[in-house]
Design brief:
about 170 residues, mainly beta, Lipocalin, 10-stranded antiparallel beta sheet, 2 helices, about 50% strand
């Protein structure tokens, strides 16, 4: 038993040492994600008809591997705050989205998606025990604005949870 445990530890240490020695990959160059950089005013219309005004700050982080979207950045008395990290998984050839917000670890999630053929949107799919959720980020190159359509699956049917409109500050 000790031999197996020691072998596993040696392999783990050796594998980590190789990754550290190799260093991080080169900075992610992604013109689509570049469009998320900046300060945004966001209007979120909830499925119950309620409208929430918010802000999002987008910036490259972690050695230019992820775009961080900070919902509620700089707001006093903010109702909602989230940190969203969007990057590209080169091995899977798809985008990845890590969503962490004020509702805690139980509702945090990792979604995966591909850029649409027109290079104007990504739909991330998040799967959990409670059901599935999609978030479709769409970019309008003429208006230089974003939309986000968040839908969730309830009892086998897809319903809109929220719609967002982003405009540059």
């Amino acid at each position: 038993m000790f031999t197996t445990s020691r072998s596993a530890i040696v392999l783990l240490v050796f594998g980590t040492a190789i990754l550290v020695a190799a260093g991080p990959p080169p900075a992610l160059k992604d013109p689509f994600l570049d469009n998320l950089v900046g300060d945004w005013s966001v209007t979120r219309k909830m499925s119950n008809g309620r409208t929430i005004e918010s802000t999002v700050r987008g910036e490259w982080v972690l050695k230019h591997q992820f775009i961080q979207l900070h919902y509620g950045a700089g707001e006093k008395g903010r109702e909602y705050e989230a940190l969203v990290f969007i990057g590209f998984d080169d091995a899977a050839k798809s985008y990845v989205c890590h969503w962490v917000d004020i509702f805690g670890g139980h509702y945090s999630g990792v979604g995966h998606g591909k850029l649409d053929p027109k290079l104007l949107g990504i739909e991330f799919r998040f799967d959990s025990k409670e059901g599935s959720l999609t978030n479709n980020f769409g970019f309008d190159p003429e208006m230089k604005s974003w939309t986000s359509l968040i839908r969730q699956e309830e009892n086998g049917q897809w319903k809109t949870f929220a719609e967002e409109k982003w405009t540059k500050k």
